[in-house]
Design brief:
By secondary structure, this protein is mainly beta. It has one domain (about 10-155): OB fold (Dihydrolipoamide Acetyltransferase, E2P). The protein is about 15% helix and about 45% strand. The protein has four helices and ten strands; from the N terminus they run βββββαβββαββαα. The chain has a five-stranded mixed β-sheet. The protein has a five-stranded mixed β-sheet with strand order 3-6-7-5-4. The N and C termini lie far apart (about 30 Å).
């Protein structure tokens, strides 16, 4: 069973795919406002370890989340090849640092399968489904788990 973040009724949805290390993830394209190249951030004292800092985005203070660190992988070492996906979560705009943005795909929601039972409950909270596309396994990220409302306010 796919969680409530996953689309229902087998309809086609557009997803933006991106890489973190060797893994590929996706999120609903409507969640992304823009994609920007990496820029230096200003650190925030006592922020969670996955919050790299903030940048000024046309007058908006934008917190930047290291998605690799947030998902439990090694923290990213940002380079000009990294990208920041600007997303709106819980009525706040945040930047998600990823290794690279791949493309936009259209997938039927019925093509998603639940994460395997061997995954921990924490892992399952971050991944709402997995699909196979052209010999690639792509995990659909649950943005609500990436930045819960209380952490969005703190970021």
């Amino acid at each position: 069973m796919v969680t409530s973040d996953a689309p229902l009724n087998g309809r086609a949805i557009e997803l933006i795919t991106f890489r973190i290390g060797a893994q590929e993830f996706c999120i609903d394209v409507t969640s992304i406002r823009e994609i920007r190249s990496w820029t230096t951030v200003t650190p925030i004292p006592h922020a969670p370890a996955f919050v790299l800092g903030v940048v000024n985005l046309r007058g908006i203070v934008l917190p930047i989340i290291d998605l690799s660190a947030r998902l439990g992988f090694a923290p990213a070492e940002p380079t000009p090849r990294h990208a920041i996906m600007v997303a709106e979560l819980h009525h706040q705009i945040v930047g998600l640092l990823v290794d690279g943005v791949s493309d936009i795909i259209t997938v039927k929601s019925s093509d998603f399968q639940s994460p395997p039972d061997v995954a921990s409950d924490i892992a399952k909270s971050f991944i709402s489904g997995i699909t196979s596309l052209e010999a690639r396994l792509i995990s659909k990220l649950n943005l609500d788990a990436v930045v819960p409302p209380t952490e969005a306010r703190a970021a």
